[in-house]
Amino acid sequence: EFVPWFLRRFRSAWPEADVELHTLSSDEQARALVDGDIDLGVARTVPVRPAVDSAVLGHDRFMLAVPADHAVAGQRTVSLRRLAQETFVGFSRTSSPSLHAELRSLLSGHGVGYDPAIEATEYTTIVGLVAAGEGVALVPAGVRRLQLPNVAYVKVADADARVALVRLSRIDEPQTIVANAITELARTAAQ
After folding, report:
1. What are phi and psi of 117, to 5 degrees?
2. List of E strands, 68-188
3. Is-contact 58 182, C-beta < 8 A?
4. Strand 52-67 vs strand 151-156: parallel, antiparallel, or unpaired?
């Protein structure tokens, strides 16, 4: 939800700016920043790269995407502990190791193992796998806007079930107008 909101405001303030979007994992963004291929990244996790600066812009609650006929589909909330016997679909540990590790850590803190039966690289694919009945998935709340037939979204009740939205940039250069704008707009949105 943040990226479309930000783009509307940024393009309104700087209509002459060239904007090109790429779908990259947090780790791929860090590599692209270091290599000079991109000027700014917006990610869900902070990759461990000494040359990359990060700032948390905000947090998004996790929701559980489930097949519409799943036992929890009609419930208002679900606890992470309840997911101990579930089959997960989720992000690839090779293309998104930071997010994969974050989900593994979150779930293990609630006594739940995390070893997705099927791994994918995009939320649209993950939710599509849920729709096909391949398992359940923890997704940021904004993903619920992706309304596919046979998918229900249930709020996760646990307070720690949230994921950051992080601005990534190169450490060794002054902040670009885009990096400054995204940080300022995020502060405005949080108020």
Report:
1. -70, -35
2. 77-78, 89-91, 118-120, 137-140, 151-156, 162-170
3. no
4. antiparallel
43 lies in the same domain as 101: no
Range 79-99 average pLDDT: 90
Same domain for 64 and 48: no
Count: domains in the chain: 2
In tens, the pLDDT along 144-165 reads 988 899 999 999 999 999 988 8
- The answer for residues whose C-beta is within 8 angstroms of residue 156's C-beta and 6 or more apart is 61, 62, 63, 64, 77, 78, 79, 80, 138
Give the model confidence (pLDDT) of 10-43 as tens digits: 788 778 878 888 888 888 888 898 898 988 888 8
pTM here?
A: 0.81
